[in-house]
Specification:
Helix content: 40-55%
Mean pLDDT: 96
Strand content: 5-15%
Number of strands: 5
Radius of gyration: 21 Å
Low-confidence stretches: none
Distance between the termini: 32 Å
Strand order of the largest sheet: 1-2-3
Number of helices: 13
Order of helices and strands: EHEHHEHHHHEHEHHHHH
Bound molecules: tryptophanyl-5'AMP
Structural class: mainly alpha
Largest sheet: 3 strands, parallel
């Protein structure tokens, strides 16, 4: 039986702008979990410099970091009880990450599919940081001994690695149950939002086509336009979930609707069964605008005062460090570093 107190940790990268997938796959669940257990949410600026999108662009990184922090707050994270902070202000993440680099095995890292996708054909030109990215992610979680990690489906393999690292450390240092086995929390119909241009591809910040995703900062007109132009097939909407097989675009739009409306997917299928996409898309556009527009407005308000965001991040980092410091001190003692 684990003795660890429930604690939630999750994070997002400040690269490009956040999109509907980040909201439905992660942020929406974070806000719900805040009611259930203590939470910590970080903006992973150290992860952002592993790839070209964040490396060598200091102003852009700082801007995107504040924008992600603003999205957390506008999306419903209550900073009066939940610390938000940027990873770069909490050096304990990097310290534990180094130790974990020595725990993780090359064979484990070589299995990471996201590295393969992100490095593509140019593996030898990728940064070493991109390769060890999931090790830093394990440190983000375990430096607080967090037990629950709400994420989208694409992070599942990274969470399995974090569990393996925790287990091996506990075993190698003869410290059973020192680190918890963090649980991925992947719930709802928004855990894998797909591109609006191709229902077999994930909605992603790095897709060249802006029409493939709905950004959290898009205007109401842009949102409605992207949804109306979203790829579909020539058939009416299906009458049952079995009929969704081989219809990835229809499935994606119905999943988005269900996630945004907080409705069961079967109920949404039943509501629109046999209808044409045009009418459904109008309803989906209205729903998306109703959910995202107030958030975008609040983000703009918060971003007008960057000093206040910086203050919130600093206060959050201070609270996060108070949790991480005794844990990293304990880890170093276990490893044999003289204090
Ligand atoms: P990132 O920044 O790529 O994405 C942030 C969160 O959004 C989710 N997500 C999606 N969910 C549904 N559909 C999509 N199309 C979609 N795209 C992204 C991601 O699953 C994620 O939950 N490695 C992480 C950041 C990270 C982290 C951590 C997360 C660093 N350290 C510690 C949890 C705990 C990442 O790159 O997420």
């Amino acid at each position: 039986m684990s003795t660890h107190k429930p604690l939630v940790l999750s994070g997002m990268q400040p690269t490009n702008t956040l999109h509907l997938g980040n909201y439905l796959g992660a942020l929406k669940n974070w806000v719900r979990m805040q009611e259930e257990m203590p939470c910590l949410f970080c903006v992973v600026d150290m992860h952002a410099i592993t790839a070209d999108a964040g490396y060598g662009k200091p102003e852009e990184l700082a801007r995107a970091t504040r924008e992600v922090a603003a999205a957390y707050i506008a999306g419903g994270v209550d900073v009066s009880r939940t610390p938000i902070f940027n990873q770069g202000q909490v050096p304990e993440h990097a310290e534990l990450s180094w130790i974990f680099n020595c725990v993780a095995r090359l064979g484990w890292m070589d299995r990471m599919t996201q590295f393969k996708e992100k490095s593509g054909k140019h593996k030898e030109r990728s940064s070493v940081g991109l390769y060890t990215y999931p090790v830093l992610m394990a440190a983000d979680i375990l430096v607080y001994k967090a037990t629950h990690v709400p994420v989208g489906e694409d992070q599942k393999q990274h969470l399995e690695l974090a569990r393996d690292i925790a287990g091996k450390f506990n075993n190698d240092y003869n410290a059973p149950d020192f680190f918890p086995q963090p649980e991925p929390v992947i719930t709802g119909t928004g855990t894998r939002v797909m591109s609006l241009r191709d229902g077999t591809k994930k909605m992603s910040k790095s897709d060249e086509s802006d029409a493939s995703r709905i950004n959290l900062t898009d205007t109401a007109e842009a949102i409605a336009d992207k949804i109306r132009r979203a790829k579909t097939d020539p058939h009416p909407l299906p009458g049952s979930k079995d009929e969704l097989k081989e219809r990835p675009e229809a499935e994606n739009l119905l999943n988005i609707y269900a996630a945004l409306a907080d409705q069961d997917r079967d109920a949404v299928i039943a509501e629109f069964a046999g209808q044409q996409f045009s009418g459904f898309k109008n309803k989906l556009a209205d729903l998306t605008v109703a959910k995202l527009e107030p958030m975008a407005k609040e983000m703009r308000r918060l971003l007008a005062d960057p000093a206040e965001i910086d203050r919130i991040l600093k206060a959050g980092a201070h609270k996060a460090r108070a949790i991480a410091t005794p844990i990293i001190d304990d880890v170093k003692k276990k490893v044999g570093f003289i204090a």
